Amino acid sequence: MAMIADNLQQVHRRLARACEAAARPVESVTLLVVSKTFGPVAVREAFAAGERRFGENYVQEGVDKIAALADLRPQLEWHLIGPLQSNKTRLVAEQFDWVHTVDRLKLAQRLNDQRPATAAPLQVCLQVNISGEASKSGLAPGEVAAVAQAIAALPRLRLRGLMAIPEPAPTFEAQRAPHRALRELQFALNAQGLALDTLSIGMSADLEAAVAEGATLVRVGSAIFGARPAGVTPAG
Ligand SMILES: *Cc1c(COP(=O)(O)O)cnc(C)c1O
Predict the structure, then answer these.
(1) Closest ligand 1 atom, CA of 81?
(2) How many domains does the chain have?
(3) Looking at the DSSP assignment, which residues form a beta bridge with residue 217?
(4) Whose CA is nearest to atom 15 of ligand 1?
(5) Nearest Cα residue to atom 2 of ligand 1
(6) CATH code for the domain in which residue 57 is found
(7) Residue 234 Cα, ligand 1 centroid: separation in angstroms?
(8) Residue 75, domain member (yes or no)
(9) Is 236 within the bounds of a domain?
(10) Given CA atoms 196, 139, 63, 65 in this order, what sign does their dihedral have?
(11) Phi-psi category of residue 80: left, alpha or beta, with phi > 0 → left and psi -120 to 50 → alpha
């Protein structure tokens, strides 16, 4: 049972080393613990080890876990990092704190309309198909500026930044390239008057490369909880 705490320590050590190598303060990178496919008991263990931010891929699984952990709710931040269909936006607007996978204006408008007035604005990132893979969702880089400007005007959302799931790459340098492209896109958007402070990039296999290119939030699952059942891979 100490495995999760041990793994978390290792991940934090990796992050600290990556920050040091990039001459960045360690507080400039936030760890999002990706708990998809792992139950409330695993989340409680990570909570006991000090973690407060958790990422889920599937809306219903996330909502069930949020309910099972209702006693911790005020202390936790729940992030949706998986694909979002229009018919699930209400659950997400009502229950989550962040959504990383907004990839069209319509989705953002629904989330804005459905976000309860009593809740803080929903924090959102735009998902960008930075590797240009046909199978991946996400906005094409050239589409991002117009959508970002429109979303920035929605009062119940706060546009925080960009998210990507680059194609797996074998070397550090190859892993850096798509992360760098996303950072450059963020820079260009900020030069157009947006104030994006979040780059949601980096997973178990490439968090060092993501930190080297400016990741502010890394989404790590298997390095913390171990391998997931076959067939459950980063999707979107
Ligand atoms: C599953 C998933 C992760 C975590 O991946 P690991 O390789 O297990 O760290 C990160 N981001 C997204 C979008 C995912 O679906």
Answers:
(1) 13
(2) 1
(3) 30, 200
(4) 234
(5) 234
(6) 3.20.20.10
(7) 5
(8) yes
(9) no
(10) negative
(11) beta
